[in-house]
Amino acid sequence: MQAIQKYTLRVFWQKKGNARYTSHLDTQRTVTRALVRSGLPLYYSQGYNPHLKLVFALPVSLYQDALYDVFDVDILEKVDPAVAAAQLGAVMPPDMPVLKAAYPVKKFKELAFASYEISIRTALSPEELQSRFAGEVVVEKKSKKKCAFTDISPMIKELSAEGTEDGALIKCTLSASPDNYLNPKYITEFLGEDISFSHTVRTMLFDEDGKPLE
Amino acid sequence: MNTDRIKHILAEVEKPGRYTGGEYGELIKDKNAVDVRMAFCFPDTYEIGMSNLGVKILRECLNAKPWLWCERCYAPWDDMEKKMRAECIPLYALESGDDIKDFDIVAFTLQYELCYTNTVNMLNLAGIPIYAADRDDSHPLIIAGGACAYNPEPMADFIDIFSIGEGEYALVELAELYRKYKAEGKSKAELLRAAAKIKGMYVPSLYEVSYGDDGKIASFAPKYEDVPAVVEKTFITDMDNVPFPTFHEMPYIDTVHDRMVLEVFRGCIRGCRFCQAGMICRPVREKSPEVLDRQAKELYKNTGYNEISMCSLSISDYSRLTELLEKLLEWTEKEHINLSLPSMRIDSFYGELMEKAMNVRQSGLTFAPEAGTQRLRDVINKNINKEEIMAGCAAAFDRGRTALKLYFMNGLPTETDDDIRGIATLAQEIVDLYYSKKRAKGKGVTVTVSVSCFVPKPFTPFQWMGQDRIEELKRKQLLLKECITTRKIVYNYHDSQVSFLEAVFARGDRRLSAAIAEAVRIGQRFDSWDEFFSFDNWMRVFETVGIDPEFYANRSFDFDELLPWDHIDCGVSKEFLVREAKNALAETTTPDCRTRCSGCGMQNKGCTICKKGGEN
């Protein structure tokens, strides 16, 4: 069978507001349907169960916002990315707006860091917070296979805190490479009982050169 | 909606996506620019409510009016309810986030008897007095409709107005009346009196009931002369032109029926004697394949779904099914859209086209013989014989199907132990049929036998027949279990206690409102969910309020008894139902409407089938 000519289109979008309550599985389904609605010339796998080729760079966890999120989708024609972005943007849910579309510059595996803003309700001062993260930061890190106490400080590239009305805003840049990903939830978990409510917003994804992932 | 007020709660409940709204396709209007604000409440979870086509259709009709905004509201799961109560957050609508108690009209759809507690609980959670008599002009108008509204009596004390029948136009008419009366500053009492004159609107507070010493209803009559003694259902006559929503909210989270739904026709030609839908949805009214094809294309463009489900009571009875499937297959195949054809009759034409149309990925098929012996199938008027069942199964096996699911009922009127054994025999013969055929090596067959308990429903020929007692239903369930000797047959059966409660409310009168209120008070809700159903609690409730539930569920009513729903006219005449009940007892079948008109009462009320040639 002759191979079908296809192209990968990269879509930059946001997941925020009420969309933060949508799990990754539900997000995939929501985006798939929006892609179908957009009328873009989508590529379907040629097997028994045809489906889109859709890959997300780094899905945020439930309850987290992403102001910079990325997915790749395979299409059959080389469309104008600006037109594609407009077409898709018109049919995405209101809390999942499209920022732009482009043809990929970097591969997803070149993703290196992600920056976050974590607002917390706490009695701790920004200085106290920062000093907590000065030395080793040991958390109980869970993976599918094991659960172990790990010092995550090498995975924290930057971290600063500033005071807010009812607590603090932690700004941090964490490792996000495929083999060394640090979920920002460990930052709040580390603070444990000292905070009562937190909300995490991922602000950017960076490649190895420290540039926004394109 | 703006979720700031509940943000901290949402992080602590299961499936927070149920409570936020904000989906693609959500309809937002300027609340200051509309005259009437309405909340359509579904007394079950978001996932179930969002799957309901009826609610989508009605909201489409209502929202077509620029002066009205009809929003959505679903029953919060108990984790969310507890948090809302703890923080004094009343029930709110998903679009605006505004409190339900501040709406003009609050509508409930009653799809199932076991959602009555949820309905009343939602009123309570909204901060609205549950009893209609305790509400004044400052409270919203509470209305209800849906299949269960055909016997509205158990909910009579809570609801201001019931809409009987199909509400596409009737609800808009009611909303128009509300708008006019609101502008004129008229009272709720005046509104109710005027609403009772709209066809299909039943205002329970305008009727007086008295009971005899035997507990039966002695009289039921309107309190005023200008209030109709009998409320006639409303229904649509021109299906092709009735508004149909092809653009609607797309849920973020997975719902029960997360696919395109195409309503092919309403009504049923069959006349199975246990089936309420088959009676109350008469006459049969079909949409044309052209309209359906156009609606399917619009739905696909607007939703991006990859499956179309064809909705009807019996899809193989659609007179232009081949034409419709051909039209759809022209474009759905290349768009990777699956078609699904639920509710197929086993004796229907099961040909190449249908096989092609059906989801290739599913290996199973479901049929409903309903009873295990020919005698009992004749009693219920299923109009299917053994040869047809076997031929249907053979056709399915020949096309590579290896899993069949068969629906039966136990506790049907006149049922004997032989009828129960007949279910096992029939299932075994189907298994044997599979092994008598040439088949792929190593592939076994699974025949699933799913048995529900018969519940007598209003407006069916079986409405007078008492339900088997719980112990008897259980004995029959175990008898069938003993009769099944192979593991090729998988046997499931329903909880007879749940079916008992269903029967109580299906045939109940307005004295049951007290039981519902008491059940809500002690914390019963989501009764249709195993997690929450409690038979013991319900028995305590009936004891507290002094009601004998067996009076409603298990007692056989006399043909001349005044029934709690006799003031509702569902179109089909009582004479016809009596005739059919007697035919059942005589084991005489009645042919389907296309073969011969059975004079059900719809002949002069818009039935197109008998006009087309059946004798009348």
What does this structure look like?
The complex is a heterodimer of chains A (214) and B (616). Chain A is α+β, with helices and mostly antiparallel strands. Chain A has four helices and eleven strands; from the N terminus they run βαββαββαβββββαβ. Chain A folds into two domains: 7-104, 2-Layer Sandwich (Alpha-Beta Plaits), CATH 3.30.70.580; 109-207, 2-Layer Sandwich (Alpha-Beta Plaits). In chain A, the strands form two sheets. In chain A, strands 1, 2, 3, 4, 5, 8, 9, 10 and 11 form a nine-stranded mixed sheet that branches. A two-stranded antiparallel sheet of chain A has the order 6-7. In chain A, strand 2 and strand 3 (65-75) form a beta hairpin. In chain A, helix 1 packs across helix 2. Chain A is elongated, with a radius of gyration of 19 Å. Chain B has a domain at 4-226: Rossmann fold. Chain B contains 21 helices and 19 strands. In chain B, the strands form six sheets. A six-stranded mixed sheet of chain B has the order 2-1-3-4-5-6, covered by helices on one side. A four-stranded parallel sheet of chain B has the order 15-16-17-18. Chain B has a three-stranded parallel sheet with strand order 10-13-14, with helices on one face. Chain B is globular, with a radius of gyration of 24 Å. The termini of chain B are far apart. Classes of the chains: A alpha+beta (214), B alpha/beta (616). The A-B interface holds A 17-19, 21-23, 25-27, 29-30, 32-37, 44, 48-50, 63, 91-95, 197, 199 and B 1, 3, 7-8, 10-11, 16-17, 20-24, 26, 250, 252-254, 300-306, 336, 361.
